Amino acid sequence: MWLPVAIFLAVCIAIILVRLFLGPTPPDRLVGLDTLNTLVIVSMVILGASFNEVIYIDVAIVYALLSFVTTLFIAKYIEKGGF
Amino acid sequence: MRTFLITTACAFLLYLLLTTASGPLFLWSKEELIIGAIFALIVAAIVRKIFPVKNLRLLNPKRWFLFLAYFFGIFLPAMAKANVDVAYRVITGRINPGIVRISPNLKTDLGITMLANSITLTPGTLSVEVDEETNDLYVHWINVKKEALEKIPRDCKYVCGKFPDWARRIAE
Amino acid sequence: MILNIIIYIFIAIGCFFNMMAALGLHRFPDVYTRLHAGTKCTTFGSIFLILAVVIQSISAWVAEGLSSPQSILTLHALIALVAILLTNPTSAHAIGRAAHRSGIKPARAVVDDLEKEKP
Q1: Which whole-number Å values give the CA distances from B36 to B21, B127, C56, C77, C99, in the listed order?
Q2: B120-158 confidence digits (pLDDT tens)
Q3: DSSP E strands: which ranges in chain C?
Q4: Looking at residues A5-23, what average pLDDT do you find?
Q5: Contact of B144 with C48, CB cutoff 8 Å
Q6: Which residue of B has its CA nearest to C18?
Q7: Does residue C115 form part of some domain?
Q8: For residue C11, which of A7, A2, A56 has the smallest C-alpha distance?
Q9: Which of C53, C91, C97 lies nearest to residue A49, judging by beta carbons?
Q10: Which of A12, B105, C22, C47 has the fewest CB atoms within 10 Å, i.e. the most exposed one?
Q11: How far is B86 from chain C (nearest CA, A)?
């Protein structure tokens, strides 16, 4: 029941990856990365439900918080053109 | 000192929430309780300079209920509308964007944070920049209405409806 | 039975909005409008997908008895949902501000107050 959903999300991630490679400016790529991170978190939760393993969801929580910090730092870098 | 205690309590509660059902003692094992307390103390000691707790308003349970009422009664329906709206614009490609400035007259940081997050997740608007002295928000609007452009600062009611009142009620 | 139908409806809504987010990144012309698609649609889609997981694990929890590991799965899925809800709009705000400060103009804009007041 859950694996087709995970495959569908993987297709969405592939479409977003195209924007990540094409994106004309750095903020465009960052938007792609941010969207991709959210989808990765959701796919981890879906996979956790699929295999009935709690550890996937724990990893998803940590990934959510770490990717948030990453996005903030890249945004700060783009804003000032250096740290 | 107050800041230190409140941060410790919050960090400990979060740790307990994440390690539920690890043992027999009130659902938690003894080791988890001890290591959780130690880590909560360390975290609170590190962040006590950057997390000043200025007032205790948010510990009032009445505000939590107000927040829940706001979240389920107003925020979620607005968010559903926003998503149908964005999906419609993705399919048809009809956009009319612009950046407008609104003054919600909120005083506290928490209020302005809540308002900015609500604006970002609701119909057609996205907060881009905040003026830190006057707490004015600059909002990117995907479908600018003509009647909102008549005066400066722009009228809040076109951009975010009743959200500033709710943010004031909850956070101030 | 009826629970399964609800779960399938939630999955359908979640997948539709996530797909809209992915397509919106290609349909919209500039970074601000892309942020609209990339933030709102993924947050909403994630809410529905994670709620589907939660409903399924709660029903399994009730079927298996109180002390099954499904309870932890439910709780942690909800925590992941709260983390997404808190972090997504904030990072969108940060990206928008960084884009404007690094000098990217909104495409096809009819009005730009920020450009006038803080060039």
Answers
A1: 14, 37, 31, 21, 40
A2: 777 777 887 777 777 777 888 777 776 666 666 666 666
A3: none
A4: 89
A5: no
A6: B87
A7: no
A8: A2
A9: C53
A10: B105
A11: 7
Domain count of the fold of chain C:
1
d(CA B54, CA B142): 36
ipTM associated with this complex: 0.86
Instruction: Classify residue C1 as exposed, middle or buried by CB count within 10 Å of its CB (0-12, 13-18, 19+).
Output: exposed
Mean of the per-residue pLDDT values of chain B: 77
Q: In what order do the strands lie in the sheet with B136-141?
A: B98-102, B136-141, B125-131
Cross-chain Cβ contact C53/A8 below 8 Å: no
Domain boundaries of chain A, sorted by first residue = 3-80
Residue C90 has pLDDT above 70, yes or no: yes
Question: Is residue C98 included in any domain, yes or no?
Answer: yes
C20 touching A (Cβ < 8 Å): no
Q: Hey, are the CB atoms on A72 and C91 less than 8 Å from each other?
A: yes
DSSP secondary structure code for residue B127 in this structure: E
Domain assignment of residue C112, yes or no = no
Core vs surface per residue A5-36: b (16+ CB within 10 A) or e: bbebbeebbebbeebbeebeebbbbbbbbbbb
Residue corresponding to tokens 């881009």: B128
Place of tokens 């709206």: B85
Which sign, positive or negative, has the C-alpha torsion A67, A70, A75, A78?
negative
Full residue range of the structural domain in which residue C90 is found? 2-102
Q: How far apart are CA C79 and CA C85, in angstroms?
A: 10
H helix count then E strand count, chain A: 3, 0
Interface test with C, best of A11, A54, A66, A83 (most C CBs within 10 A): A54
Q: How many residues does chain A have?
A: 83
pLDDT over 60 (residue C119): no
Which residue is it, tokens 């706001």?
B70
